[in-house]
Amino acid sequence: DIQMTQSPSSLSASVGDRVTITCRAGQNINKYLNWYQQKPGKAPELLIYGASTLQTGVPSRFSGSGSGTDFTLTISGLQPEDFATYYCQQSSSAVMYTFGQGTKLEIK
Amino acid sequence: QITLKESGPALVKPTQTLTLTCTFSGFSLSTSAVAVGWIRQPPGKALEWLAHVYGNDNKYYSLSLRTRLTITKDTPKNQVVLTLTNLDPVDTGTYYCAHLSGVRWYMYDYWGQGTLVTVSS
């Protein structure tokens, strides 16, 4: 399995802040990296695929970058509804996928 | 409109076998570009990918659970079934099924609401 390591595991920020979450793959995954947002008691929702492409309907304050082994999710201008847990997921082989351990974004 | 819904028992005993069904609509699981996957989440913990099956019936499993997992599809019924054998309390969690879109990129773009399974005697 390809290991995915997210950092930080938790993060406190204020409305309006810019935050960055990182995800590192255990081996080169090209740009096969997805980001999901999960709110308490809800299923995850796809935010970004292919490392940097916004899913339809996702606000433009979300952005993703990276390739190879290092990736980032940036939220510019945090909104109250953005406080949630974020997961990265690799899909490099179309065979076996793995998720990161998650980053919980909390209100400061 | 793509929708998925999980169904199965809420409570199972240790050593028993869990059978979960994902019933979906809005797409056909009949091409190699589409799959349905299962992902679980223990209470308060991270997502864990379990398995997925493509429309061409190719199946893939988590390495750590592959000896206990079986995934099958019933294309006419629009269902995917996951079985997990020899249950243990650590298998407690919410189980999600999801639609995998796999043309250029591979991502779970539609999810079911999840079903909570508790393993306890």
Structural description of this entry:
The complex is a heterodimer of chains A (108) and B (121). Chain A is an all-beta fold. Helices cover 0% and strands 51% of the residues of chain A. In chain A, strands 2, 4, 5, 6, 9, 10 and 11 form a 7-stranded mixed beta sheet that branches. In chain A, strands 1-3-8-7 form a 4-stranded antiparallel beta sheet, with no helix packed on it. In chain A, a hairpin with a 3-residue loop joins β5 (45-49) and β6. Chain B is globular. Chain B has strands at 3-7, 11-12, 18-25, 34-41, 48-54, 59-61, 69-74, 79-84, 93-102, 106-111, 115-119. In chain B, strands 2, 4, 5, 6, 9, 10 and 11 form a 7-stranded mixed beta sheet that branches. A 4-stranded antiparallel beta sheet of chain B has the order 1-3-8-7, with no helix packed on it. The mean pLDDT of chain B is 96. Chain B contains no helices and 11 strands. At the A-B interface, β4, β5 and β10 of A face β5, β9 and β10 of B.
Summarize the helices and strands and which ones pair or pack.
The complex is a heterodimer of chains A (108) and B (121).
Chain A: E1 4-7, E2 10-13, E3 18-25, E4 33-38, E5 45-49, E6 53-54, E7 62-67, E8 70-76, E9 85-90, E10 98-99, E11 103-107
Parallel strand pairs in A: 2-11
Antiparallel strand pairs in A: 1-3, 3-8, 4-5, 4-9, 5-6, 7-8, 9-10, 9-11
Chain B: E1 3-7, E2 11-12, E3 18-25, E4 34-41, E5 48-54, E6 59-61, E7 69-74, E8 79-84, E9 93-102, E10 106-111, E11 115-119
Parallel strand pairs in B: 2-11
Antiparallel strand pairs in B: 1-3, 3-8, 4-5, 4-9, 5-6, 7-8, 9-10, 9-11
